[in-house]
Amino acid sequence: MRNRIHAVHTVGVAIILLAIADGSSAQTAAPKPKLTIEQLIDIKHPSDPIWSPDGKLVAFVWDRAGVANLYVANADGSGQPKPLTTFSQGQVEGAFWNADGDTVYFPHEGDLWQVATSGGDPKLVWSKPDPGSGYVPSPDGKRVAFIRGNRGTRAAAQDSSHGSDLIIRWLSDGTESTTAHDDVSIRGIIWSPDGASIAYTAGSKIIHHDESPSYSGAKLIYRVSEYVPGQIYALKLADAKPVPIAKPGEYGGLAWVDNTHLVFDGQSPDFKNYFIYLADAASGTTKTIHEIHEEKFWSIPDWGEAGAQPWPSPNGKWIAFLSDQDGWDHLYVMPASGGDAIQITKGRFEAWRPAWSHDSTRIAFDANLEDRPGDRVLGIAKISDDPAHAEVTYIPATPGTNIEPHWSEGDGRLVYQHTDTHNSADLYTIGTNPGALPPVRLTDSMPAGMDRSQFVEPQFVHFPGPDGQQVPGWLFVPKNLDRTKKHPAIMWIHGDGVNQNYDGWHVQRNYAVYYSIHQYFLQKGYVVFAPDYRGSIGYGRDWRTGVYMDVGGKDAKDAWMGANYLKTLPYVDADRIGVWGLSYGGFFTLIAMTDQPTLFRAGVDVAGVVDYAMYYSDPYHGDWTASRIGTPEQNPQVYANASPISHIDRLERPLLILHGTADVNVPFLESVWLMDEALKKHKGDLVSFMIYPGEFHYFTREHVLLDAWHRVDDFFDANLRAPAAAKPKPK
After folding, report:
1. Cα–Cα dist 731/727, whole Å
2. What is the DSSP code (8-state) at residue 162?
3. d(Cα 432, Cα 310) in Å, to the nearest integer?
4. 410-431 as b/e: b if 16+ CB within 10 A
5. Can you spell out the DSSP letters for 37-65?
6. What is the chain's mean pLDDT, rounded?
7. How far is CA 403 from CA 45, 61, 437, 506, in A?
8. Angle at CA 69, nearest 5°, toward 66 and 74?
9. Taking residues 42-64, what's their average pLDDT?
10. Residue 16 to residue 8: CA distance in whole angstroms
């Protein structure tokens, strides 16, 4: 089946630049203000847009340095977004509209709040203290389901040791009923389309294991958290008798197909088979309706980028999902009852984040481009009643990275997130029908005093990896750089493994902060380079699964060999190249600094893995590791290669380590062990360590970002700005 590709409309593009007043002559023109670290922290990040019922407003969350507040914007772009909350700490998430579209409800610190879009202070929905979590509105917006601990206290709401109640409460008068109880926990509530049933997961728990390694001291206890999966249940509210879904355990992508069936997905224990299951909510019986076999491992990212799947259509007729069976992540549709799956998108690109229209006739998605993997465009697949004859069109929205479309009521518009080389993440709306108006910008997330004309656009390049394969990368060269001289360079290695760099600001807030600090480094005269080593997304299945049985092998060499590429540039000083990375990128930084101890002048490890056997033993991360390299018992040599701490004695250049104590992605204990080994190997004079109390894996809080960025800035300046000392002549 050949897709018919049509252009919906052509849009003129205007990138908004801050005007800088010109002087009367070049000699009298005032110098442009330089970017500051303090400005970087003022950049906000929007997320979770939700349309009002009448399609005139969009409510969303705007985050600044870890403090998230609720805003509302006019969908036509008129005026400025209006803050609905002004909390000084904490998060606002899971917001939803009332049926009239004049009030937004949102959870905050265990309570359900409400705020009128016309103005006024937010207030509690109920006057009595009523801590809870997981608030989910019914389809008609008249009730909410939520979870409450048995004791009715805030501590119990977060403490699974006392069990959980599933509460249904009417928003009109606060009348409530307890519809289910579990002695351990309840989470993940979803309503059936008719509001008559609920599905949820019960019995999951976290077991804490405390340890005090000898190298850390007996009085310091580190907590390792083991997650124990629960069981999916379906509950018809009129019966008040939960039905366990026959497939034991937890699964991803749980959703109602219709009022009587659930769909979810899972993988085989060896991670080579992917399944989509259909369950009868009344009996709990389950059947497999689709299966995919992978030669290496199922690698499509199920969070952040591609999103959890599968996705049933609102009318219950179809199920959409992503598969890489032809080597690229593409959109497929199959009958909800099972049957042949039809591939909707085709080509050497990756389609992610599909969203069904309310009338179930179209699917919006975002996809990158064959020749520009760092850009993403919005697509619409017209399914109608026959996926085999689907028509795919692409909406030429503002050039850059356009992701995560959400349909308005009536399906006439989409709200989506956009980034580009001059703008961090912002929200836009765009029409979905031929002849619709061009994109409309809703937000501007950057502080007013920031001079965007100074931002450097990346160049997409390739360089040879260890086996000759071409490795993609993004080169940033400062504006007006004197290319007759040699300049210092910084190489950035992204984390996650399953992530990538983009042609402009990163789509995720967690990595956008690093793109921001690189713009700061560029204005100081550093050349910046960011490789997309094998294992990165955006380049097809084979590149993504190239880490199979080789974590810390060719992928790490792809990364550090980016320095060899930098050395070919006549304006880069080969003796003044620094390297840094977060998480998996921190792991690669440690490998680079020990495997090639004189390649880089200095390195910064931000919460990097120091040993994959240690990472595997942490109960949260065994699956990620085992899918790629098995277990330490199965493949001891692979794990030995993925252990830069084993080679810390080779360190010859300065290393800065930054880590938050509340990190659950890469436990803080890994860096403590690294410091101990460095001292034992007499490398203490080369290693410095900064601890951030209470900080998570991705640095978010203002005081942490201020210290971390200034510390990294000073570290690179001290080690890279001055030319390398002349080597002594042999006697």
Report:
1. 12
2. G
3. 23
4. ebebbbbbbbbbbbbbbbbbbb
5. HHHHHH--EEEEEEE-TTSSEEEEEEEET
6. 90
7. 14, 16, 19, 11
8. 135
9. 97
10. 24
Q: Which residues pair with 137 in a beta bridge?
A: 144
Beta-carbon contacts of 634 under 8 Å, excluding residues fewer than 6 positions away, are none
Residue of 238, 240, 387, 366 lying closest to 305 (CA atoms): 366
Nearest by Cα to 321 from 410, 232, 389, 387: 387
360-414 pLDDT tens trace: 999 999 999 888 899 999 999 999 889 999 999 998 767 899 999 999 999 999 9
**Per-residue model confidence (pLDDT) at position 304:** 63
Residue 10 is classified by DSSP as: -
Q: How far apart are CA 471 and CA 558, in angstroms?
A: 7
Q: List the structure tokens of 467.
A: 């086996």
Using 50, 70 and 90 to split pLDDT, how confident is the model at 729? very low
Q: Longest Cα pair distance anywhere in the chain, in angstroms?
A: 92
**pLDDT over 60 at 642, yes or no:** yes
What is the enclosing helix (H) or strand (E) of 116? strand 111-116
Which runs of E-coded beta strand occur in 8-110? 45-51, 57-64, 67-74, 82-83, 96-97, 103-108
For 124-132, what is the mean pLDDT?
Answer: 80
Task: Find the mean pLDDT for residues 703-724.
Answer: 94
Q: Give the residue ranges of DSSP H helices in 630-668.
A: 636-641
CA–CA separation, 469 and 487 (whole Å): 28
Amino acid at 646: S
Question: Percent of the chain at pLDDT above 70?
Answer: 92
Q: Which two tokens stand for residue 349?
A: 């690109």
Helix (H) or strand (E) holding 240: none
CA distance 384 to 361: 4
Structure tokens at 370: 């064959």
Q: Crossing angle for the helix pair 702-716 and 509-523, nearest 10 degrees?
A: 40
pLDDT for 291: 96
Token code pair at residue 414: 């989409």
Which residue's entry shows tokens 């008559």?
196
**What CA–CA distance (Å, rounded) separates 475 from 569?**
11
The neighbour count for residue 440, using CB atoms within 10 Å, is 18
User: Looking at residue 3, what is its pLDDT?
Assistant: 38
Highest mean pLDDT among 5-14, 209-218, 688-697: 688-697
Sign of the alpha-carbon torsion through 704, 709, 710, 714 = positive
Residue 318 neighbours by CB under 8 Å, 6+ apart: 312, 333, 334, 335, 336, 360, 383, 387
Comparing 73 with 372, the larger pLDDT belongs to 73
| Closest residue by Cα to residue 168 from 262, 235, 114 | 235
Q: Is the backbone peptide bond immediately before 619 cis, with ω within 30 degrees of 0?
A: no
108: left (phi over 0), alpha (psi -120 to 50) or beta: beta
Cα-Cα-Cα-Cα torsion 24, 25, 28, 30, nearest 10 degrees, comes to 80
Mean of pLDDT values over 649-656: 98
Query: What mean pLDDT comes out for the span 583-592?
Result: 98
Nearest to 556 by CA among 588, 583, 585, 529: 588
